[in-house]
Automatic annotation (TrEMBL):
Protein name: Alanine racemase
Domain Alanine racemase C-terminal positions: 249-375
Keyword Isomerase: yes
Gene3D superfamilies on file: Alanine racemase (3.20.20.10), Lyase, Ornithine Decarboxylase, Chain A, domain 1 (2.40.37.10)
The protein's annotated pathway: Amino-acid biosynthesis; D-alanine biosynthesis; D-alanine from L-alanine: step 1/1
Reaction(s) this enzyme catalyzes, per UniProt: L-alanine = D-alanine
Transit peptide among keywords: no
UniProt xrefs under InterPro entries: Ala_racemase, Ala_racemase/Decarboxylase_C, Ala_racemase_C, Ala_racemase_N, Ala_racemase_pyridoxalP-BS, PLP-binding_barrel
Free-text function comment from the UniProt entry: Catalyzes the interconversion of L-alanine and D-alanine. May also act on other amino acids.
GO CC annotations on file: cytosol
Species: Fictibacillus arsenicus
Length: 390
């Protein structure tokens, strides 16, 4: 392990080769669709920049993030591919977006009127994706009149252009969903209206991972891939019916920093909730809830040591937690909290289920103080340690 840029005994490993493989599988699955790699929230915790570069090298052509800051960070790091900010930006920042060739999402007439005051003659043309709400109920235009006004205002402006139109599904990860079909139809109707008004944007998109995995009919030419690009299934329902294997890119590791013998009756951690029944070997790992290893994972979660499961016992602390070892082990032994050791695997879904949440949330919550180690072409290519600005 190359530790040039971090000093702690806990790290996340991001296997970029798996991201590449997932993107390539999608290219085969949907040869006619362009891929927009969704790298918001630091690439769902996987590292936005590294994931973006890998996705672009593997066949994705565009990127999506949630906010302007995330897009600007990617530009600062030298990424020149098209980037879409999917959430609302403040009207006063439109020039900043235009200057940096960042496409933005709009879904309010008032916003557009306000933003037009801030666009300068000298700016590059601002690329806009219209967001339509077909049933997600989050953001997006719902009324025909507002859609008409917004699209014509943009069309008549020399400062901006409609580059795309999109919507977002609420239930694409459920096989039998009436709402999915309703949203698909509503979107097609709205596209017909736009066409009637002379608007045929370059990019028409609606599919997230779940929709892209299930394939569906419509006049769409781009898919927005998040969770599946990272190798995780959008839902357990879909996991059983995936059209190809998704390869998990994220794994989480630590090392024993202390090993001790407990005598019967000895207790472990805050609240003394764990009490030894017999003589037991206990190891301490330097990872805790401040790293995103949530308290609710104990009791329940295991770690892998020498390919065997060892349960986490007692309360998870802020920076440390304890595991029950099968026998005496040495300080320095590697423990895998998510991932594979020999023939045993702890999947992200296992941890998500123990934490009573979805797999999306787990890597997002692994905090920035956990360094990320990137593997590319089978070798460590880079470390990211936000604390030390690496
Ligand atoms: N498009 C939009 C507008 C999104 O909000 C998301 C994910 C995606 C595409 C990618 O979806 P996928 O990861 O299922 O492929 N957004 C979120 C969210 O807001 N909460 O969970 C996932």
């Amino acid at each position: 392990m190359d530790r040039n840029h971090f000093y702690r005994d806990t790290w996340a490993e991001i296997n970029l080769d798996k991201i590449s493989s997932n993107i390539k599988s999608f290219k085969k699955h949907l040869p006619d669709q362009k891929i927009m790699a969704v790298v918001k929230a630091n690439g769902y915790g996987h590292g936005a920049y590294q994931t973006a570069v890998e996705a672009l090298e593997s066949g994705a052509e565009l990127l999506a993030v949630a906010m302007l800051d995330e897009a600007l960070a990617l530009r600062k790091q030298g990424i020149s591919a098209p980037i879409l900010v999917m959430n609302r930006i403040r009207p006063e920042y439109v020039s900043l977006a235009a200057e940096n060739e960042i496409s933005i999402t709009i879904f309010q007439k008032d916003w557009l009127i306000e933003a037009s005051k801030f666009l300068k003659e000298t700016d590059k043309v601002l690329n806009i994706h219209l967001k339509l709400d077909t049933g997600m109920g989050r953001v997006g235009i719902t009324e025909e009149e507002e859609l008409h006004d917004v699209s014509l205002l943009i069309q008549n402006s020399s400062a901006c252009e409609i580059e795309g139109v999109f919507t977002h599904f609420a239930t694409a990860d459920e096989w039998e969903s009436e709402l999915f079909e309703t949203q698909r139809k509503r979107f097609i109707n709205q596209l017909d209206l736009l066409k009637k008004w002379g608007i045929t944007p370059k990019y028409v998109h609606s599919a997230n991972s779940a929709a892209a995995l299930r394939k569906f009919e419509g006049p769409f030419n781009l898919v927005r891939l998040g969770i599946s690009m990272y190798g995780l299934s959008p839902s357990s329902e879909m996991k059983e019916k995936l059209p190809f294997t998704l390869e998990e890119a994220f794994s989480l590791h630590s090392q024993l920093i202390h090993v001790k013998k407990l005598m019967p009756g000895d207790t472990v951690s805050y609240g003394a909730t764990y009490r030894a029944k017999e003589e037991e070997w206990i190891g301490t790992l330097p990872i805790g809830y401040a790293d995103g290893w949530q308290r609710r994972l104990s009791p329940g979660a295991d770690v892998l040591i020498r390919g065997e499961r060892a349960p986490i016992i007692g309360r998870i602390c802020m920076d440390q937690c304890m595991v029950k070892l099968p026998y005496k082990m040495d300080v320095g032994e590697k423990a895998t909290l998510i991932g594979k050791q020999n023939d045993e695997t702890i999947e992200m879904d296992e941890i998500a289920s123990l934490a009573k949440t979805i797999n999306y949330e787990i890597p997002c919550l692994i905090s920035s103080r956990v360094p990320r180690v990137f593997v590319k072409k089978g070798r460590i290519s880079e470390n990211m340690n936000v604390i030390l600005n690496f």
